[in-house]
Amino acid sequence: MSVEWYVYILQCADHSFYTGITTDVNRRFEEHNNNNRLAAKYTRSRRPVTLLYQETVDSKSAALKRELAIKALNRQQKKALIQKNDGLQDKLERLRPIYHAALIEQTIETSPELEQMLETIYLPLASWCLAQKKNGCLIIGINGAQGSGKSTLCHILASLLEQGFSQRTLILSIDDLYKTHTERKQLARDIHPLLQTRGVPGTHDTRLGIQILEQLKQAQNTSLLIPRFNKAIDDLYHRDQWTQLRGNIDIILFEGWCVGATAEDEANLIQPINTLEQDEDPDHSWRQFINQQLAGSYAELFSYIDQQVYLQIPGFFQSIEWRMLQEQKLRTANDSPSSRIMSDQEIQRFMMHYERISRHCMKTLPKTADLVLKINEQHDITEIIRP
What we know:
Layout: E1 5-11, E2 17-22, H1 25-34, H2 41-44, E3 50-57, H3 60-71, H4 75-85, H5 87-105, H6 112-132, E4 138-144, H7 150-165, E5 169-173, H8 181-190, H9 206-218, E6 223-226, E7 229-230, E8 235-236, E9 243-246, E10 251-256, H10 275-280, H11 285-295, H12 297-302, E11 307-312, H13 316-333, H14 344-368, E12 371-375, E13 381-385
Parallel strand pairs: 4-10, 4-11, 5-10, 11-12
Antiparallel strand pairs: 1-2, 1-3, 6-9, 7-8, 12-13
């Protein structure tokens, strides 16, 4: 019996094309994305890759000739071949309404740049997620400084995975694992006053987070409640407003500003990095406690992550600007007199709580994450990098 051969074209993370031949397109696609030994040298340094085109030929000899012919084409000719094949165009046309609906839900106005990002960023990112999935539930950790766009990214990606690729997807925010306002007041009395402010390691219910991820990993038609946190009132929603989850989940997008963060060397904690640490934590006991939390229960929580994604922004200063924009949106959406929405001055102080770990992540995660998304000052994802 003769063996069918395939000629295929991949789009790499740097938007270049790679052409190859194989007897099994799915296997070869998996190797290019995840197998350092079997992947081509070219694709190993340009992951993730997306399959754009394939055609069938009747022999290896014919496949080799066709591969050479395609490689001889210039970029525009290759794009024309791909579009003629309709594989990419069909995918884009199928996903575009989903993408537009997700943008509208996030109150984002479309633009030519955003239209292009469906093809250059979101489709490759969704394809990468699918390529990582083996058996059971896949947990993808998504880290980015405050205001970097984690929630927006997760919402758009989850919409594409669910509606475009039939993957039941859960967005779990570390913010929804906060301890209650009352519990944090107690923590502030018992350990350090700065722990009244939500967000830093030690202010989350890591036991609950571990329990949720463990149940979802077991994939036994789970029925559980996912907590939800209301930032406007700085406390958890009542349990009857939590998300009721039934059945198995295919992909979890576990997002948060410190998701995947690691503890620092304790010697680095002695020198304060801002006025908050200098004036309100002179004995560095607050930052020592946070560091111990990262080395303990948070490390256990983050050990459930299968793949880590990092949103790389220009600098911490940008995070402060974007956090102010987030708060302005909350201020517009919530006019309740009891809401605890911050002024710009309060945000400046608030962000000092997160500066140390955010800067530590900026140094470490670009080297250790499985995928890095570069974000420019206009808040656009410009590049996907696989370290």
